[in-house]
Structures are given as C-alpha cells and as structure tokens.
## 1
Amino acid sequence: MGKIVETFGKVIQDECDKNPSAARKLLLAGYHAQNLRWKTVPGKRVSKAAQLASVETMNSMIAPLAHAGRAAMVSLFTPCELLQVAGLHPYSCEGFGCFLSGTHAERAFLQHAENEGLPETFCSYHKVFIGAAEKGLMPKPRFIINTTLACDANLLTFRRLADFFGVKQYVIDVPYGQDEEAVQYVAEQLRGMKAFIEAETGEKIDEGKLAKAVGRSQRSMDNFRRFMALSANKQQMATVTDQMFSAFMLHNLLGTEGAERFTVQCLKTVKNAPAAKGKRLLWMHTIPYWVAPLREVLDYNEAVQVVGCDMSFEGLIQGDTADPYRAMAQRVVYSAFNGPVQRRIDRGLEAARELKADGVIWFCHWGCKHTLGGAQIAKQKFEAAGYPCLILDGDGCDRSHGGEGQMATRVEAFIEMLGGEQV
Ligand code: SF4
C-alpha cells in the first residue's frame, strides 16, 4: 500500500505542474477511493470510533475539493459552526497539510513555498498548504476566516492567501487574557463573523440551527471528557493516526452530527475495552503519523499506548450554550494554546493525572516556536510532577527532515526507561 500511495503522491505533484485542476480531480478521486476503503474494509483492529473519525475527516477534505464554490478556508482553531449552518465547507491549513503529507504529495509544495521566499524554518503545515494553494491544487475559497490562535504563522499565511486568491479575509483576534472581557470581545467578533458570511454569501444564517450546532459541540466535548475519565483504567488499542483524526473531529468538525457520533462511539469503545495494560504515553502537540518506524512502535501495541494527545483535549470547556456566540468564544479564549506555554503544560499535567500516564512526549515540530520555546520548561514541570518527559524533535509533515529511524529509537529507549517491555 505504501508504494501505491507514494506513486500517487508523485503523480499529483507532477500533474499539478501541468494542469492543476486535473491534479485536484485526481486527488479527489484518490480521497474518494481511500474513504470507500475505510468505510467498507476498515481493518480488523480498527474501532468503530476510529473508523468514524477517519471517514468523517476524509469527508471534510473531499467536500471543499468537490464543491469549490462553497469552500471556505479556515485555521484549525476557527469555530466552524456558523460555516456548517451556512452549508459551507471549511478546509483548514493544518488539515490539508496533514493529508497532503499522508498522500506523499508534500515535497513539491514545500519547495514552491520556499522558492517563493518562505523561510525554511516556517511551519511545514503552512508551507505545504501555501504551496498547494499557490500551485492551484487547492480550490479558490469564497473567503478566508482565521483566528490568531495559536501561532504567528496564521498572520502570514492567511493574509498572503487572501491576496493571492483576491478574496476577503476575516480575522478573529483572540487576546491572551482568559477572562470575561476577552470572551465578550471574541463573542462580538463571532457575531461579526456571522454578518461577514451573510454578506459574502447573500444568505441568512438560521440562529436556531446555530444554537443546535453549538449544543452538539458542547455535548461532543462533554462526551470526550467522560471518555478521557473512563480511559484511565482501560487499554487503548489505536494508531497514532487515530489521534490526529480525533484532533480534527474536536476542532473544525466540532458542531457536526458526525463529531457527536464519534464521541458517543468513543464512550462505547472505552466501556467495552479491556483493563489497562502496558505503558501509557501522553503526547503533547501534533503527531508525526507519517513516520513508519514510529507507527511500528506505537500502533496497536499492548506494551505501549498513546492514551491522549493535547491536540484533542486542549479546547474542551464547559461553555455557556444559552448564548452560542459566548460558547464559541469561550472555546478559543480558554484554549490551552492561547497565551503562555504554561497553560498547555498545566492542561497536560491535568490530563497526565487523569489518564494515569507513565510518561510524556513533548513533540517539537520543526518551526513551531511556541512548542520549541516551551520544551525545557515543559520537561522540568512534567518531571517535577513525576512524569518522565521526552523531548522529541521532528517534523509533522515534511519528510525531507528525515530522522524517522532515530525518532522511533528514541521513543523505544524512552519506553524502556519507563520500565516497559521490549516493543
Ligand atoms: S505546528 Fe505550531 S507553528 Fe505550525 S500551525 Fe501548529 S502551532 Fe502553528
């Protein structure tokens, strides 16, 4: 299968040089085929929850490619309920960065972005996405909406792409403060987002449907929190890719029926799971799921499991659903990715206790200043609290950084240090 995907990725990149819209159609056909496979032959060990997450996430990649006229470009942390209710298809920079890398189709787009002046140290999720957009693989969106969370890459990428496509951009400024004033400030901007979408589409957004979508978001978050609490004493047989899908379900897909079904399924899966066994790892930040040797160590392994990832739980809050705009604002304002890195560490510590983690992996994605800058302090804090912490350097989507084998070796050594069995 790996070879087929590799060849497919090469064809997409080559075709994009000659005929970008044919490359997009090809990509779409490939994603449809993969989705059909996930729906019909998910594999023996794939849980219902993981299957749902992979299919729903793939659907969210297919929709903007297939219906470009209703596509809206967003950042990962943009609350998407307003777009869902408006019948638009949000597509995120981080989502497509991951998927193009999973398709082995990232190299030419990274290269294009660097040739166009983006520094080598710029986040590769953004570079892949910018390259794919500017080479014509990504559809022209109706408009762009992004938040200022969680990094300054957002400020550059979305402004640049708004200029490139000649479309309007709406920016949701998220202040660092986590208080009522910040919530009201963001809620006001979300009301402005509604007016912006209505003006751009010429269609009214139904407040009743919005309230329902935000209610689904809250129920999904509540379910996922219960799932985490129940996971403490249970074995979690999954793949690192499942963690990535879960992060998309709890961000751009939050508010959809699919996301709620996923969290309900997570609860069913965990209730029926066997008792905890093996070493339990908490993963902080994005997961380099393309690294095959790492997957060999961590996928479906009774001896060691990734039991949580902060990309999934960082934004779980108890929002005020009586006011959908406040509830969505609370989610971004109280995100652990908002402001100082200590907030991510605190949320990670809380999760480590809850999930009964044996150790923590702090993944330093190349170019992510927030994560790199906080690595040493995170290690100190986790270890002071009794959780050995491995700082692991790598890249979430750029294969040219290499070091796959070394990454897996370091993780294996860490597991051994935790007293785990040979994996
Ligand atoms: S990995 Fe870091 S730099 Fe890249 S999009 Fe995420 S927060 Fe921003």
Note: The longest strand covers residues 359-365.
## 2
Amino acid sequence: MKILVTGGAGFIGSAVVRLAVRRGHEVVNLDALTYAANLENVASVSNSPLYSFEQADIRDREALDRVLDTHKPDAVMHLAAESHVDRSIDGPGAFIETNVTGTYNLLEAARAYWTRSGKPAGFRFHHISTDEVFGSLGETGQFTEETSYDPRSPYSASKAASDHLVRAWHETYGLPVVLTNCSNNYGPFHFPEKLVPVVILNALHGRPIPVYGDGGNVRDWLYVEDHADALLLVLEKGELGRSYNIGGENEAKNIDLVRTICAEMDRLCPENAPHDQLITFVTDRPGHDRRYAIDPDRIRNELGWRPSVTVEEGLRRTVEWYLENQDWWRPLLAREGVGQRLGKA
Ligand SMILES: NC(=O)c1ccc[n+]([C@@H]2O[C@H](COP(=O)([O-])OP(=O)(O)OC[C@H]3O[C@@H](n4cnc5c(N)ncnc54)[C@H](O)[C@@H]3O)[C@@H](O)[C@H]2O)c1
C-alpha cells in the first residue's frame, strides 16, 4: 500500500512510518514540522526508497491537493495534531486551527482526490484519535466505542470535533473512513514535555519530579510500537465507518507509574538512588480528568489484536532508550516551553 501519514515526524506518527516502511509499504510523511516534530524520529527509514517527506501544513488546502495528486496514495493515516493538553489550556486557538480546521481541510482534500480517482473501493481515510474525547470516569467502568463523548479540555474538545467531522464525511459523502481512539502512549522518541520523558530526564538530572495534584489520576498506558501495530491492522482490516478503542490493558495511577520509572532509574543509575525522593506534588491541572480506561473487546474480538508488552517491560525499554539516546533528546530541551510548567490557567 502507499500510505500518506500526516504528523509522521511526531511521536506516534513516526512509529507508524518506521513500522509501515519495515513492512514494505510505501510511505509519504506529511508534516508541518512544528515544535513537537523531529525528523530524527524517522532517520532509520529516511534513506529507504519506500519513504518520502513533504513539509506541508494541514491548514493549507492547496498544499494538500498538491501532495495527494503528486503521490496518489491508497490510504491516508491522519495523526497530525496539536497534542499537549497543557498547551491547549494556554493557547487553545492552535488546537482549533490544526485539529478541527486542519482535519476539515484534509477530509475535503481527501474527498476531492478520492472522487477524482473514481472512488476506488479500497481507499481508506484513517483518523487517529484519543480516549480523552470520552471524558472522565469514576472508580469503575471503561470506555467502549458506544460511550458518549464528553470532552473536558480544549485538546480533547478539538479532537472530539475532528472525530465528528470524520464520521459526518463518511455518512454524508461516503468517504471510506475508519477511526481509532487510543489511550496514553509512551516509548522511544516521546517529546520531552510529556509525563514519562519528564520523569526520566528529571530523575537523571536530580531535579524535582512534578506530579500533578495527588497523583491519583488513572490512565491506561500503551507502548507506542504496539499502537503503531494496531493502527496498521485497523487500516487494513477495520470495518468502514467503524471506530476501534485501543488500550494497553495497563491501568495505573500516575504516582505508581512515576514510582515504577524511579525504580528503573535506581536499577540503571544506582549511584543516585533512590530517585523517588525527587517526587514533588504540584498544583493540579485545571479540569484534570480523573480516570480513563479502555474496554478493548472490539479490537480484540473482531481483529484479534492485543498489546505485546506489559507496562513494566515497556517502561524498562523506554528508560533504557532515553539513557542510550541522549543525542536525540538534548537538543529538544531548548525548544520553546520545554521544561516549563504550562497550562495552569
Ligand atoms: N500521545 C498520546 O498519548 C496519544 C494518545 C492517543 C491519541 N493520540 C493522537 O495521536 C496523534 C499523534 O500524537 P503524537 O503524540 O504523536 O503527537 P506529537 O505532538 O508528537 O506529533 C504531532 C505531529 O503533527 C505535526 N503537526 C502539528 N500541526 C500540524 C499541521 N498543522 N500540519 C501538519 N503537521 C502538523 C507536528 O509537527 C508533529 O510532528 C494525535 O492526533 C493525537 O491526538 C495521541
């Protein structure tokens, strides 16, 4: 297949690009190269004849038309987004422009391209979204694909809006779409403003490890390479118009996740143990959702997919990767906003 991946220089998009090329797909990586992007993420495949890159912004309709006509992909996997909840609190405008208007542009460009191409039955538009669109759970329960949307941050509201647009383009224009809503990812190449890399790098530097509120917020954690694997499966085997929840079957309180990372750091850097003495509770994020949990029955029963690594194994690999790849993350610490507390409203 020839796949146009938007956001392929970001964290999850680059995992999709690397895996798709390894599996023999042709990949066109379309990315605007915002603060969150890094072409080093795809360095391992960038010399492959199967890979090409287009610097373009999904808010720019003409650029999208040009890229689609030039490369003539069989499928679009849409991962380009503003993705950091804290930044969405300080500056929601960029989230509306990229996640909502950008998705609208991409849908329209894809619909026009698909129509011009004679509406091939095999064409797919795969929209990648988040479990955050479902809002916050209490102590029990899980999100299914039928759970009502209840987004509570500018980020999750913008992603919810984009999900609605994608479904509408399927129902109204027949665009062949599939959607996925995934839980929190972690793993190599994660931009150092997100929780897992922040904990690793602050522990490494002996700096306070910030934990929001009481640390009792619960997330389901999915290793990014497992997510990429699930996404390619949904692209190939998912039923049209349907959405699939993807989870890691690894629910953990933030504080427990942070302690697990500290224990890994104790093992790998024993001279600075115990790292959990660096844990510092800080003012909570406004509107911080308490608990997310994924019911993975649909993707497990219909497509036979399960995550391959436990959170303990995934975190071990991730901590080792950050310690071994300092050349990757050091330059990113100088990017705007990194290392600062954002989103206090
Ligand atoms: N990170 C998670 O835990 C998680 C979980 C579930 C779903 N998601 C979704 O997966 C997708 C990818 O997330 P991520 O964590 O890899 O994000 P990321 O911030 O690491 O990467 C986003 C990429 O999109 C690009 N981009 C941003 N605005 C663009 C624009 N206007 N035009 C073109 N490119 C643009 C950036 O340059 C960057 O390379 C997002 O849609 C996100 O909502 C993420």
Note: The chain is about 40% helix and 15% strand.
